[in-house]
Design brief:
heterodimer, A: 264 residues, alpha/beta, 6-stranded mixed beta sheet, 3-stranded antiparallel beta sheet, 9 strands, disordered N terminus, B: 267 residues, mainly alpha, 0% strand
Chain lengths: 264, 267
């Protein structure tokens, strides 16, 4: 019960709200009875096993998937910066990084240059999108998502393709972004210990919301333990004691059998 | 020596390739080549329909092509892979169309004209219809260009930013049906897809922006039309296929030269 007390009290600042959201895809119940709301300035992380509906949930929130029943409401005029799990651009489409950032509307060159510099890909502005490495591509997606100062930043496994230093850097950025833009951040991640450290609220999803609340409260919830076991104890210990580096935490994560690519 | 019918043929061909250029780019970028071919093949059924009902060929073909495109869109994602579904629909509608046309006894001789086009036989009215359809498609493309591009890069990004990618898809589908309807007299059912894909693919190595590729495709299409007319006049070959041959030769040349160029710049 410790988990539910962390539900939002700041209803007036709600940016996105889902009410009794159900999504059925091809006869499968992908999401069931989801009640959710996201307030300005919050960092919320969604964790859950493969196929638990995490990506589907984000896509339902942006309107890419129609709820079977229930509803999703966005604050009128809400600006969403969305970083998808994967994105394929056909190599027949001649599109430079700079142009990708300008889609669909033109921006001043200086704004684009600044965004590229912040993302650490300043020298790749005139490169073709299809010529980028996985990490650079991810940075370009992120730079574009932040370009219009979003109210909500949604990241679906956004650290994919980044090396370890890049990943750490990436999550460090999240808090900076929240603080400078004042936006909400909603992210899906497998990287449990980083996630736990950066989030204000964790939602544990497995078709339905198993439990949610402050990371520390969620980590001891029986529903969470049932899904993840206690194998990520180290990650949680790391979170609690706010340590910075631990050389063995990746081995433990691998034991959980969670590959980095997850399609759902 | 260029008489009226040659002038009309050139105008008709140019009208078609100008609209086919930007649309063809989207067909290539979105990997809809087979979708384009299927829509075109369905046009034979439209020919039969317009002959049977004695309505305008343009109207009959437009109606059936639209119906085909909408049906494929609705059926997709229901058990069969898109290319299987298109394969069934494209060839079934072609076969049914051919059978249906054969019932209308007095047009059997004209069938070749619908399959391969008869650009030298276009009348003034045809030219006006072709340019009307063509300008409509170009206007649609220009109006929706930024959101069409975004939806082509990613449906999800478009949704997240408040666009409706399904609407962009519908615009492409409708444009495709219009291009098929106006192109049938120029190159015929079997070669319409070539006019969409080949100029766009030829322009690709020469372009570094989407806009350059669309304009390049239009220029290459225009060269193919004029070259094809000239070639068929001198070689006494069927005009529609000659136009497609010229565009295919341009495709091969551009790719060879592009390869040569990149090879040189590496050394």
């Amino acid at each position: 019960m410790a988990v539910s007390r962390a539900t939002m009290t700041t209803v007036d600042k709600t940016l996105i709200q889902a009410h009794q959201l159900n999504v059925h895809l091809g006869g499968n119940h992908v999401l069931e009875h989801i009640d959710f709301n996201l307030a300005r300035g919050e960092i919320v992380t969604i964790v859950g096993p493969n196929g638990s509906g995490k990506s589907t949930f984000l896509r339902a929130l942006i309107g890419a998937i129609r709820p079977t029943t229930g509803s999703v409401q966005q604050m009128p005029g809400l600006r969403v910066g969305y970083v998808p799990q994967r994105l394929h651009i056909d190599s027949t489409l001649p599109l430079t990084v700079r142009r990708f950032l300008k889609l669909p509307h033109a921006h001043e060159p200086k704004i684009i240059d600044d965004a590229l510099a912040r993302a650490g890909i300043a020298e790749r502005g005139d490169a073709s999108m299809t010529g980028l490495s996985g990490g650079q591509f991810q940075r370009a997606l992120m730079a574009r998502a932040l370009l219009d100062k979003p109210d909500v930043l949604m990241l679906d496994e956004a650290s994919q393709g980044l090396d370890q230093a890049g990943t750490a850097d990436f999550y460090r950025q999240i808090e900076d972004i929240r603080n400078t833009l004042g936006c909400a951040v909603l992210m899906v991640s497998h990287d449990l210990h980083v996630v736990m450290r950066a989030a204000d609220r964790v939602i544990c999803l497995n078709q339905h919301i198993c439990c949610q609340g402050h990371p520390e409260a969620v980590s001891v919830a029986p529903e969470y333990r049932a899904l993840f076991g206690t194998e990520d104890e180290q990650a949680l210990a790391l979170f609690r004691h706010d340590l910075h580096h631990h050389p063995h935490d990746n081995r433990k994560k691998a034991d959980m059998g969670q590959p980095h690519n997850e399609a759902s | 020596m260029f008489s009226d019918f040659m002038l009309r043929a050139a105008l008709a061909g140019l009208g078609v390739v100008l609209a086919a250029a930007p649309l063809g780019c989207f067909v290539v970028w979105r990997r809809m080549a087979f979708f384009g071919a299927a829509t075109a093949h369905a046009a034979v059924l439209g020919v039969a329909l317009s002959l049977a009902l004695s309505i305008s060929l343009f109207v009959g073909v437009l109606a059936v092509s639209l119906l085909m495109a909408v049906m494929v869109t609705l059926l997709s994602g229901r058990g069969y892979a898109m290319d299987t579904l298109l394969g069934v629909m494209a060839h079934a509608s072609l076969a049914f169309g051919l059978v249906a046309v054969s019932f209308i006894t007095d047009v059997r001789i004209d069938l070749m004209a619908y399959l391969f086009g008869d650009i030298l036989a276009v009348g003034n009215r045809d030219v006006i219809i072709i340019w009307g359809g063509s300008i409509l498609v170009i206007a649609l493309m220009m109006w929706r260009w930024p959101s069409l591009l975004l939806a082509t890069v990613s449906d999800d990004l478009a949704y997240a930013e408040g666009f409706r990618p399904q609407r962009e898809e519908l615009i492409l589908t409708v444009s495709l049906a219009i291009v098929v309807a106006v192109a049938i007299k120029v190159v015929g059912v079997l070669l319409i897809a070539a006019l969409l894909i080949i100029p766009a693919a030829t322009a690709r190595p020469l372009s570094s922006t989407p806009e350059q590729m669309a304009i390049g495709a239009a220029a290459i299409g225009a060269v193919a039309v004029l070259g094809g007319l000239w070639g068929s006049w001198h070689l006494d070959t069927p005009t529609g296929p000659t136009i497609v041959c010229v565009s295919a030769i341009l495709f091969a040349l551009v790719n060879l030269l592009a390869r040569q160029f990149t090879a040189k710049s590496v050394h």
